[in-house]
């Protein structure tokens, strides 16, 4: 099954059972791979004189991006994960953050880079940065595959951004709606009727 992507391009879906749910593809697997490599080069240059980076990924959405991003780096990296909840079954963040899984190690004195799938309202990330800053890292920055400037409700220092986009709710490449669509290799917009099923 193929669905139309950007003008003049077709994207082959790896999960045909979702084909009828996707309205359009915004960023193809190719687009994502190129942007991830570009971010990897930029971050590697910026941290070349350090003893390495501690990547803190936010479960579950950032897993795909974090794995590919970590492999694109030419500096030593260690991986940590946190699980936060602010969406539930919703398409927008509630702003109320719960820690479902905390860090497994001390980050004091470490160069920490938070890896996000998407920054939309910024409320969850703002809370996370305050929380991590309280643990005394040597530096704390953010890399996000997607940023939605029009949706942001707080000013945030997101140093590394893959793509800026509008307010559409996207799925694929780790991002979900009601825990579905994470395995899609691209980022696509769901058809409106998908939201009305539940």
From TrEMBL:
Q: Which residues form the signal peptide?
A: none
Biological-process GO terms, alphabetical:
GMP salvage; guanine salvage; hypoxanthine metabolic process; IMP salvage; purine ribonucleoside salvage
Q: Which cofactor does it need?
A: Mg(2+)
Catalytic function, reaction form: GMP + diphosphate = guanine + 5-phospho-alpha-D-ribose 1-diphosphate; IMP + diphosphate = hypoxanthine + 5-phospho-alpha-D-ribose 1-diphosphate
Taking every annotated instance into account, which residue ranges of this chain make up the domain Phosphoribosyltransferase? 31-177
Q: Which UniProt keywords apply?
A: Cytoplasm, Glycosyltransferase, Magnesium, Metal-binding, Nucleotide-binding, Purine salvage, Transferase
Per its UniProt entry, which superkingdom is the organism in? Answer: Bacteria
Query: For this protein, what is the EC number?
Result: 2.4.2.8
MF term (GO), any: nucleotide binding
EC class name? transferase
- Where does this one sit in the cell? Cytoplasm
Q: Which SUPFAM superfamilies match?
A: PRTase-like
GO CC, one annotated term: cytosol
Q: Mainly localized where? A: cytoplasm
Q: In which pathway does it act?
A: Purine metabolism; IMP biosynthesis via salvage pathway; IMP from hypoxanthine: step 1/1; Purine metabolism; GMP biosynthesis via salvage pathway; GMP from guanine: step 1/1
InterPro entries the UniProt entry points to:
HGPRT (IPR050408), Hxn_phspho_trans (IPR005904), PRTase-like (IPR029057), PRTase_dom (IPR000836)
For this protein, the record's NCBIfam families field holds: HGPRTase
Family affiliation:
Belongs to the purine/pyrimidine phosphoribosyltransferase family.
Name of protein: Hypoxanthine phosphoribosyltransferase
Native organism is: Actinorhabdospora filicis
Q: Name the gene for this chain.
A: hpt
């Amino acid at each position: 099954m193929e669905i139309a992507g950007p003008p003049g391009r077709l994207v082959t879906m790896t999960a045909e059972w979702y084909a009828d749910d996707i309205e359009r593809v915004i960023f193809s697997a190719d687009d994502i791979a190129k942007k991830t490599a570009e971010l990897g080069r930029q971050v590697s240059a910026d941290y070349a004189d350090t003893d390495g980076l501690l990547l803190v990924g936010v479960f579950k959405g950032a897993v795909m991006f974090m794995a590919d991003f970590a492999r694109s780096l030419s500096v030593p990296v260690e991986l940590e994960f946190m699980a936060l909840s602010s969406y539930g079954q919703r398409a927008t963040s509630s702003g109320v953050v719960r820690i479902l899984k905390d860090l497994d190690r001390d980050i004091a004195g470490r160069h920490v880079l938070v890896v996000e799938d998407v920054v939309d309202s910024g409320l969850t990330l703002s809370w996370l940065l305050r929380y991590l800053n309280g643990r005394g890292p040597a530096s704390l920055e953010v890399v996000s595959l997607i940023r939605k400037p029009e949706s942001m409700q707080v000013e945030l220092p997101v140093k590394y951004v893959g793509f800026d986009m509008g307010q559409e709710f996207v799925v694929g490449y780790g991002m979900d709606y009601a825990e579905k669509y994470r395995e899609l290799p691209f980022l696509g917009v769901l058809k409106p009727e998908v939201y009305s099923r539940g």
